[in-house]
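User: We ran a pulldown and think these components assemble together. Before we commit to crystallization trials, I'd like a predicted model of the whole complex to look at. Sequences follow.
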Amino acid sequence: MVGRIHGCDRCTSRTTAIALASSCVLALAAAVSGCAATAPGAAIAPSPQQSEAELRAGFEIRPVRSASALLTPDQLAGPFHRVGADVLHDGRDNVYSISSDFGDFEAVGDEQLAIRLREIDALAAMEATSKTATFAAAAGRALTSPFVATWNLVTHPVDSIRGIPVGAWDAINHAASLAGGSRSEFEDNALASVIGFETRKRRLAADLGVDPYSSNKVLQKQLNRLAWAAYAGSLPSMFVPFVRDGVASEPNEDRLSAMLRDNSPEDLRKFNRIELAVMGVPEPLADQFVGHRWYSPRRATVLVASLAAMDLAENRIGFIEAAITAESEVEAQRFTETARLLRAYNDGTTGVRAIVGVDGQLLAYSDDQSLVLPMAADYAIWSRATADAVRAAQQPLPDRPVTGIVFEVAGSASERVRSELQSRGIALREHVLDPLHGDLPYTPPRVETAAGGAE
Amino acid sequence: MTRSAWVRLTIVCVIALGCGGGPRPERQREVILRSEDVDRKVGEESAEDVEGQLGLIDDPLLVAYVNAVGQRLAQNAPRRNFSYSFQVVDQVAPNAFALPGGFIFVSRGLLVLSNSEDELASVLGHEIVHVAARHAAARQELMRNPLSFLQGGYLAGYNRDQEHEADRLGQGLAALAGYDPLGLADFLRELEHTERLELGASRLPGFWDTHPSTARRVSEAASRGRLVAGTRKPPIAGSRAEYLRKLEGLAVGPRASEGVFVRDWFLHADLDLAIRFPAGWETHNTHVAVGAISPLRDAQVFLEAGGTGEDVEAAASEYLAELSDKGFRLTDSQRMVVGKNPAFRVAGNIPGAGVNIHAVLTFVNRGGTIYRFTAVSPYVTFAKYRGAMLNVPRSMRALRPRERREIREARLRIAVALAGEGIADVSERTRNTWSVQTTAVMNGIATDRVFEAGELVKVAVLEGL
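Assistant: Here's a predicted model for the assembly, 920 residues in total across the polymer chains.
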C-alpha cells in the first residue's frame, strides 16, 4: 500500500524554477478546490480531505465517483477481489479501496489499481502453487539447503542481521560494495542479490506479470517465499509466462520488461547512471536520483528511459533536479508519469526540444513551438493547482515563441477543465496513458500442471 | 547456429568499422536470451575460435594496457553475471567486436588507427554496451527463430538501434570512467576518412544496411559528446605521446611472419617456402589458408596445412572421408612427385545447385609436413584454369637468399617532426610507406599540416624480420 499524498505549502518558498517545478507538482497533487461542476461518473459529494477554504475559492469539488462507472466488470470484481463502490479523488488521481482474499488495499491512481489487481491474481496463483506437492517438496529441500541461514535475511533483513555466520557478513559486505551506494525502499537486501535469490525472484515476477520491486508487502512476502523455494529448493517454474498482446512474453516482449527481468537492481542503476551521464546530468545529482528511496529500480528505469527517448531535449537535468524532491511513492510515481507523458508527446506528436520550468511547473517546448503542459492525473479537475499550472504555461518564455499550448493529461479531464482550457485557447489531449483502458488484454496468471499444460 | 558460424558472423559484424548489413524491412523487436550462463558458455567457446582463426597479439604489455583501459570502463558497466575481458586480435582491418559473456576484442588495425586513450576507451565502451545490453544474444536468438528471414546467408550485424544505443551509452560509460566522450567522434572521423580513402566515399545507409553511416555517427557523437556529463581523469597511459609509444612496433598490414606476397610469389620465412600463384590473380593470406582467385572469380587455388606425417596417401584418404560427407565424388587418384617431394593427387566432383564443381587436390609431403593444395572451379571452366592451378604445387620450393631479404613487414613507428615539416617531409625522412593521405588519416590531421618541432607523427616503416 502507498501513503496518501499530502498538501504542500512550501511551493512559494522555493527559489529556483526547477525546484519550484517539483514542489508545485506536489501542490498540484494536493490542491483542492470547490466548484460544483458535475463530472462524468456522478460526483455525489466532495472527497473528505478537501478543505472549506478551497471550496469557497470557486474551484471544482473533488468528486466521489462510482467504481461501476469507471471500471469494467472484471476490474470491479473478480474471483479474488472486489473494488469499493465509491472512488475518491485526491486532486489528481482516483483513489480506490480494494478488498481481497489477501487483505485490503488502497490504490492511488488508475495505474496502481491495475497493478494491484494483477498482483492479487498473482497472489492467488502463488497460493495455488504453494499447495502443490511439488512446492512442499521444494520447501523441504530449501529447509535443508546450505543457504538456509540466509532465509531470515531475505524475509527479515533487520532482525536477523545479528548472529549470522561471519561468512554471511562477508557476503553482505561484498554485496554492499557492488551496490556502491544506497538502495531504494523496494529492493531486497544485498546478500540475497548476491546469492542469486533475487534473480529467481525477478524471473518469477516476470512470469507472473508483476513488478519485483512492488511496494505491496503481501505480494513481496509470497514472491520471496516462492523464489526461495525455487532458489534453495529447486522448485521448477510452475507459471505460464505472462502474456502481453496475445504473444508470450518470452521471447517477444518489450525492451523495458526484458531489462527489468534480466538485470539486477545494481545493473539497472548502472544503466541509469550511464543514461543520465549522456543527458549531461552531473554525477552527484545522478547518484542522488539512482539511490533515491522512492524510486524503485523499475520506476527509475521508466523515468530515465522516458527522458532518454527525448534525446534532443535540452534541460533534462532540470527534470531530474525536480524528480529527486519526491517525498513519497506517489510523488515519485507522478514524476515518472510526467516523464512518460512528455515521451508520449515526443514519440507520437512532435519532438520535445526543451524541458522548461515556469513558476514551478514542468513544461515541454516542442519542435513545432508548442508548449506542452503534462498533467499526471487520472481525472484532471479545475483546482487551484491546475489553474496555477495553466497560468504558468501561459507566461511568455524568453527566446521561445509559443504558437500554442497543449494540456496533456494521462487520463481524462472534467467538463470544467475543458471549458477553462477552451476559453484560453488551450488544446486538450486526454487518455495519453490511461492504464485501465489500454490495449492490454486481461490475462490472469496461469499455473502449469504437472503434465506441462495450464490450469 | 554452430559455434564456428557464430564466430564467423561475429567477426564479419564488427562494431565500428563496417558491421555487416542485412535486410531490415522494419523495426525488429528485441529478443533476449534468458540465461547469461548461455552467454558465457557461447562466449568462451567462440573466444577460442577467434583466437584460432584470427590469432591474438602476443604483447603482454600492450594487452595488459588495453585490458586496464577496459576494466576502468567496466567499473561503471552493468556487471551481469560475468566479468569483462579485453584482448587484441591480430587483424589488419580496424575492428572491434564483442562476444556474449563479456569477451571483447580490438584489432591491431584499430589500435594503429587510434590516436588517444580517449578514442580507445570510446570503442571499448561501445563494445561493453553491446555486451551489457546483450545485443549479441538478441541477435543470436533472432537467428534461431525459425520465422527469421535472416537465417542462412543474410546475417545481419547489430541493428541500427543497437548501434545507436552502443554509441550513445558507450560515450556515457567513457565519461563516467573519466574519458573525453568526444573520443568516439574523433575515432569515427578517422574511420570515416579511412573509408573515404579506401572506398572513395563514406558508407551510406541503405535498405540493405543495418548500420548507420559513419558520417552520421560522427555528427551525432560530436553533438552528444559535448553534452555528456563526466569528470575527466588522467589517462592510464599518461599522455598522447605515451599512448603512441605503447602502440609503437605494431605490424601495419599483413604480417611477414605469416608469409607475404611479393608479386605472384608467396614467401614464408619460417617454413622456408616459396610458392608461385597464377599471375594476375587476387591473392589472399589468412590464418587458415593462402590462395588466389581468378580475375573472373570462377576459380580458386589455395594451400592449407594438412597435418604432419610422411604418408601422403593416408592423408588424402583421411581428408576424402570428410569430403565425401559433403558430396565429393572421387574420379581419379595418382601418386606423383612434386619437386623432390612425394605427393598424391585426387580429382573429383561436388554436385552443386545447377552447377557441378570440379576439384583437384594435391597432397605434398615436405619434410614431414603435409601441404594440401586445392584447385577448384565449375566443371565447365576447370579446363581453362587447369594448367595455371596445377602449376602452383609444382612451384613449391625453398626460399632463395634474395627472397628471404624481401620478406619485410610495415611496422608502426612514431616519428618526431621537425619545425616546419609537412607530412611529405616526415615521410621522406623516415621512409614512411603510407601515402600523405593515409598518414593524415592515421594521425587525424589535415594533409597540408605543417608540424611544430617535437610533434609526434605515426608512420609505417618497412622492416625485415
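The longest strand of chain B covers residues 341-351. That may be worth checking against your pulldown data before setting up trials.

User: Thanks, that helps.
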